Amino acid sequence: MSGPKPLANILEITPYKGGQKLDHGWKLSSNENPLGCSPAAREALSKAAEHLEMYPDGACFALREAIGKKYGVDPDRIVCGAGSDEIFQLLGRAYLKPGDEIIQSQHGFLVYRLVAQQSGAKCISAPETELTASVDAILDRVTDKTRIVFLANPNNPTGSYIPFDEVRRLHKGLRDDILLVLDGAYAEYVRQNDYSAGMDMAGEEPNVLVTRTFSKIHGLAGLRVGWAYGPESVIDALHRVRGPFNVTSVGQAAAIAALADDSFVTKSADHNNDELDRLKPALEKMGYKVYPSVANFLLIQFEDRDGKRAEDADAFLRARGIVIRDMKAYGLPDCMRLSIGTREANDDVLAAFEAFAKAD
Description:
Elements lengths: L7 H4 L14 E2 L11 H10 L12 H11 L6 E4 L1 H13 L5 E5 L4 H9 L3 E5 L8 H6 L5 E7 L11 H9 L6 E5 L15 H6 L3 E6 L12 E4 L2 H10 L7 H12 L1 H24 L3 E2 L6 E5 L8 H10 L2 E2 L1 E2 L8 E5 L3 H16 L2
Helix pairs in contact: 2-10, 3-10, 4-5, 4-9, 11-13
């Protein structure tokens, strides 16, 4: 007996694989916060865990209120999810059908493509310029089938971003019935003056949605809490397709506490920027090509010769207890992505990279 068969488009999906880890050493493959999470968030989680027999608040009322107060936006125009990943899945359910198209930049986050495939839609990748999203390339690929444009800004895995005037130019070039999704997972790390996560635009325009997460700078990746802010009509649609209790009670409690701990966020951003400034030139001095990054990771390119390719570096680093992320799935087979770790971890990384550079 053959049993039930899934839809054909589902069998075409290559499941997403997160960053791997070793039994020992440093895991620097998933862009996690090396400082952990806010002590206040940990305490709030512990208190909330005293009542695990109770269902969470399905509306995430207190969390939405806290987010609204923090960013000065209407809580009724916020929807929460199990990480921003779930928000993307909800968008697929609400707005995509077979034959539709989404557009992303060439090396955009892999989950966007998965969302399209699950809905029977097609993912169109727009070429980048020096690993940076190109507004012109995205607009050139808009068709009457385009329903969503996903823009990760900053982008994972390249670490690049486009200035906000370019984001506005992109939006101006889109039809009103195309939803522009601004993925700000790494927004808190960016300190460039020409950058904006797009909250104002999401508050003003009927077809702009901003997504954010507590997984990165807040260090709550294990709890899966994300959110989105945008037009009432879009938020209403997402509420209609989400699960009734899609964010756990402990996740909501920890997120509220994390949101109030500005000192932890500042400490995390300072550490990240200090280590970016230390690691990038040090690696370049060893002869590696390292792309500029405003996020909490670096994209490193390796030579195309025996013994010095990306897979060779991966094996060398793993033997020393260091795991970083290969980029084959992103169409960057000669690159690897290094998450910023603790200073101790980063010292070991520099020593390992130097040894690899000198190895025969």
